[in-house]
Amino acid sequence: MEKKEKRWVFIYAVVLLALTSLPYLIGYWRQGSEWRYTGFVFGVEDGNSYIAKMLSGAVGSWLFRSPYTAYHQDGFLAFLPYIILGKLTTPPGQHEQLVALYHLFRWLSGYLMIWATYDFIGIFIQPIGLRRLGLALSTAGGGVGWLSLMGLSSLWQGRIPLEFYSPETFGFLSIYGLPHLAMGRAFLLWGIVIFLRDRVQSNFKVGLKGGLIFLGLGLMQPLFVTIGWMVLVAFLTV
Question: Which domain holds residue 106?
Fold first, then answer.
C-alpha cells in the first residue's frame, strides 16, 4: 500500500471511529444524579458483561470463571483481552477507567479492521476509487435493511433487519461497540491475505506469520478460526 493510500485509510478510520463515538459521549453528557451511564448504547447487557470480565482481571484473575454456578471451576482461557485490560485499572474511579479502556480497545480494533479490510479488498480490486468504495460499504454499510430507515420497514414485516443487531454479520456494529469482534475480523482477513498473497513463497517466515495471526484470531473470537480454515480448505479444494 502506498503512503498516500495509508494516509487516506487512516483519515477514513479516524472519521468513522469519531462518528461512532458521538453517541457514547452524548450518553455521558446526559447522565445526572438520578441515573448513571454505563458506557454503552446497544447490547448493553453484553457490554456490562465485558466490564465484569475486565473487573475480574483487575482483582487478579487470569482465567475466566463463570459467576453463575456453585460448582468449582479451574477457569479456562477465554475473554483474555478484557481480563488483561482490567489489570490496568485501580480504584478510585475504576468504572470510568474500565469504560475508557474498553473504548480505547474499540478504537484500536476498529482501525485494524478497517486497515485489514482495505488490504483484503486490494487483492481483488485494483482501481483505488473502487477500493475505497468497497471499504466504505463493508465497514460503514450493511444490507438493504438500512432502507427501513427511509420508511420501508414494511418490507421486513415488523422484524428488525439483521444489520441492526448482528455484529458478527455486519462489520459496522463491531466497530461501533464490540472490539474483540472487530479485531477478530482484522486477524481473519489478514490471515487470508497472507495465504493468498504469500503462499507461493512457502517459507517458514510466512507460515509463522500466518500462524501467529490465526492464534490472535483464536484469542479474539474462536468461531472465526473455523471460518478461516473453511475458506482456506475451500480455496485449496476447488
Answer: 3-178
Q: How many separate helices (H) and strands (E) can be counted in the chain? A: 9, 0
Q: Residue 64's beta-bridge partner residues?
A: 76
* Residue 133 is assigned to a structural domain of this protein: yes
How many domains is the chain partitioned into structurally?
1
Does the pTM of the predicted model rise above 0.85? yes
Determine if residue 137 is left, alpha or beta; phi over 0 gives left, psi from -120 to 50 gives alpha, anything else beta: alpha
Instruction: With respect to residue 225, please indicate whether it lies within any of the assigned structural domains.
Output: no
CB 112 within 8 A of CB 82: no
45 found inside a domain: yes
Report the phi/psi class of residue 39: left, alpha or beta, with left for phi > 0 and alpha for psi in -120 to 50. Answer: left
Question: Per residue of the chain (238 residues), what is the pLDDT tens digit?
Answer: 778 899 999 999 999 999 999 999 999 898 887 888 888 988 888 899 999 999 999 999 999 988 888 888 888 888 999 999 999 999 898 989 999 999 999 999 999 999 999 999 999 999 999 999 999 999 988 777 777 767 666 666 767 777 777 777 788 989 999 999 999 999 999 999 988 887 666 677 888 888 899 999 999 988 888 888 898 888 888 7
At 186, which amino acid appears? A
